[in-house]
Amino acid sequence: MTAAGTPCRKASPHRVNETQWQIEQACPQCGAPVTLEETDRLLACPFCRVRLYLAPERTFRYLIPPASGGKGELFYIPYWRLRGSCFTVAAPGMTNRFVDTHALAADIPDLPPTLGLRPQVLKLRFVTPATEGKFLPADRTAEQALPDLGKTPGGIFCRIFIGEAVSLIHAPLLLRGDTLYDAILGRAVSTGNFEDLERPRASSSAPPGQVHFIPTLCPDCGWDMEGERDSLVLLCRNCNSAWSCADRNFEKVAFALMIPPPGSEEIAIHLPFWRMKPRFEGIDLASWADLIRIANLPKAVTPALEAAPLYFWSPAFKINPALYARWSRQMTIFRPLGSEIDCLPAGSIHPVTLPPAEAAEGIIINLAQMITDRRKLYPKLAGLRITLEEARLEFHPFVLHHNEFLHASLRVVIDRTALAYGIRM
User: Fold this and answer.
1) One-letter-per-residue 3-state SS of 266-321
2) d(CA 302, CA 308)
3) What is the pTM of this model?
4) Which end of the chain, N or C, is less surrounded by CB atoms within 10 Å?
5) Residue 295 to residue 378: CA distance in whole angstroms
6) Mode of pairing for the β-strands spanning 42-44 and 73-90
7) Helix axes 288-295, 356-370, angle to 10 degrees
8) Calpha distance 180→187 (Å, rounded)
9) 120: part of which helix (H) or strand (E)?
10) 8-state DSSP, 392
11) Is 238 helix (H, G, I), strand (E, B) or coil?
12) Chain center to CA of 47
C-alpha cells in the first residue's frame, strides 16, 4: 500500500520495454533517488512515501547529462521526442500508423539528425533552473518533426498526431574554438564558420521550462487522491470527485458512471471515455441528424433527431491507432445515452491516459472515417475549426467474455490485451 492508502500497481510483464526511456530524479521531499518512465505522471517515493503529480510547463523537457571533465562552452541542442498514433486524411481515405522517433529541432548544419540509442541506454534528467549551460530554442514544431509521408495521390487534407509521448530532449555539446564536440564521447560533430556559431554563442542560459511537483491531495476535502503512475485524472473517493492538473492547479473533471442494464453479468472493469459536444466552423454539422446525412447511416431522420445534440466519443486511454479509430466511430454511432449516476465506480477502473485536448483532436479522425462523400467534404477538413462546448468523462461497464471485454449495454468488444498498449508501447 502507498502512503495514500491506495494499492500500488503490480509489476506487469508488459512494462518491460526497451523503448521506455528512464528519467533520474531526486525526491523533492527527502532527496532520495527515484527512477521514472517517460509516461509517468505520478512520482511515488519508495523512501518517504510521498506522492506528487508531475506538471510540466507546456511540454516535458529532459536533458542527457554530459560527461564530467569536458572542456569548452556547454550547449544543449533540442530534439523532439515523438511517440504515438499518426492519422492521415488524403483523397484515397484515412490511414494510420504508429510513430516512434526523435528528430533534430534546431537549424544547425551538420548535427546528427537523431539521438540514436542514447536515450535508451542513458538515464535522462529534467531541465531545471539550476542546470548549467546554454539552451538553443527549437526551430521546428513537433508537427514539423513528424516523418515525411512522401507524395500522396490527391494531396493530404489533414494529419493528426495523438501522442503518448511528446517532449524535448536536450543533447549536450561543447564548443571549443570553431568546433562543436559531443559532450559525452568527446568527438567533433560540427565545424562551422563564424556565422554558424553566432547562434549558439547568443543562446539563452535560462532553461526553457521546468516540471512542478504537485501534492496529490484533493482540493475539496484534502484526502489522498488515487491514480496509477501514468494517470492524467486522479480520483477522490472521499468526496466523490475527479481532478486533472492544468497550470499547476487541480481542476475538477465532470464525470458520469454509466449504469449497466438489469440482469447484466458481473462487471469486470470500467473503461473511461470522453464524451464531447463540439461546435464546427467550416462544415454544416450541428445535430445528430446532420451526422446521419453525412455518414449515410441507416437511420430515419426525424424532428427529434434534428433537435438532438451531437456528441462525439473518444477512448480516454491509449490504444493502438486502428482500435482508437474503430472505438471512436462505434461509440459515436451507437450513442450510449443510457442511465447514469454521478458516482465513481466501486470496482476496477482503467486509468485515464488520454487528455481531453487530444481527444478533441480525434474528432476529425472520427468524422473523416464516417464521411461518405469524400470528394466534396474531405477538402473542408483542412480548414475545419472545432471548439469544445462541453466535455465530460464517462466510465462504461464491461464484462469479461473469454479473452475480451464486452460492453455491458452496447455488446461491442475489445480484446483485453489491447489495454496494455499504453503501458507496453
Assistant:
1) CEEEEEEEEEEEEEEECCCCCEHHHHHHHHCCCCCCCHHHHHCECCEEEECCCCCH
2) 10
3) 0.88
4) N
5) 13
6) unpaired
7) 50
8) 9
9) helix 118-121
10) E
11) coil
12) 29
The three-state DSSP-derived secondary structure of 131-194 is CCCEECCCCCCCCCCCCCCCCCCCCEEEEEEEEEEEEEEEEEEEEECCEEEECCCCCEEEECCH
Q: Helix (H, G, I), strand (E, B), or coil: what is residue 47?
A: coil
- Residues 408-425 as b/e (b if ≥16 CB within 10 A, e otherwise) read bbbebebebebbbbbbbb
- Taking the C-alpha atoms of residue 311 and residue 325, their distance in angstroms, rounded to an integer, is 16
- Measured at the alpha carbon of residue 409, what is the angle toward residues 405 and 411, in degrees to the nearest 5? 50
Task: Tally the C-alpha atoms within 13 A of residue 63's C-alpha that lie toward its C-beta.
Answer: 27
Quote the CA–CA distance of 398 and 179 in Å, as a whole number. Answer: 60
3-class secondary-structure state, position 253: coil
Q: What is the pLDDT along the chain (425 residues), one digit of tens a residue?
A: 333 333 334 333 333 344 578 999 999 999 999 999 988 999 999 999 999 999 998 889 999 999 887 788 898 999 999 998 999 999 888 999 998 888 999 887 778 889 988 888 899 999 988 888 888 888 899 888 888 766 666 678 989 999 878 899 999 999 888 788 899 988 888 766 545 556 666 666 666 678 999 999 999 999 999 999 999 999 999 999 999 998 889 999 999 999 999 988 899 999 999 999 999 999 999 999 999 999 999 999 999 999 999 999 999 998 999 999 999 999 999 999 889 999 999 989 999 999 999 999 999 999 999 999 999 999 999 889 999 999 999 999 999 988 899 999 998 888 888 887 654 44
To which residue does cell 490504444 refer? 319
Kindly give, in sequence order, each residue whose CB lies less than 8 Å from that of residue 8, ignoring residues fewer than 6 positions away. 1, 2, 44
| Alpha carbons 134 and 114: distance in angstroms, whole number | 20
Is 218 in contact with 236 (CB distance < 8 Å)?
Answer: yes
Q: Which residue has the cell 517515493?
A: 45
